[in-house]
Specification:
This is MafB-related protein. This protein has 115 residues and is mostly beta strands. It is 10% helix and 36% strand.
Length: 115
């Protein structure tokens, strides 16, 4: 079986394995309900996320997403559903869309906050 890098609609990086494309992600991408599904669809169709000051610069060497190459983390909320993704400010590419649990409930996010 061969693995080929490709592009999905919306500029998301994906892996193509045989005839199946799998979006590259570092978090939860499967919605738990219709509200989450609609929120994810909206963010992918119209990404308007911001980068809060609490989020450190990109340093994901495993996936090659580094701040020095233009990658920034973005946060967008739709109907109280928090979605994180990354954007390359040089190329406009957006990828790694994922759901983030509410930190007030004690559930962890994937971002390491500054002390």
């Amino acid at each position: 079986m061969q693995t080929i890098d490709g592009e999905m609609a919306g500029g998301n990086k994906s892996l193509k394995i045989g005839t199946q494309s799998v979006e590259k992600s570092t978090g939860r991408t499967i919605p738990n309900n219709l509200k989450e599904q609609l929120a994810m669809e909206e963010v992918k169709a119209n990404p308007q996320g911001k980068t809060p000051a609490r989020i450190p610069p990109m340093s994901d060497t495993k996936n090659g997403w580094l701040a020095k190459d233009g990658w920034v983390k973005r946060v967008q909320n739709v109907n109280k559903i928090e979605i994180h993704y990354i954007e390359n400010t040089r190329t406009g590419e957006k990828t790694d869309f994922k759901f983030i649990e509410n930190t007030r409930t004690g559930e962890k996010t994937d971002f390491k906050f500054k002390d």
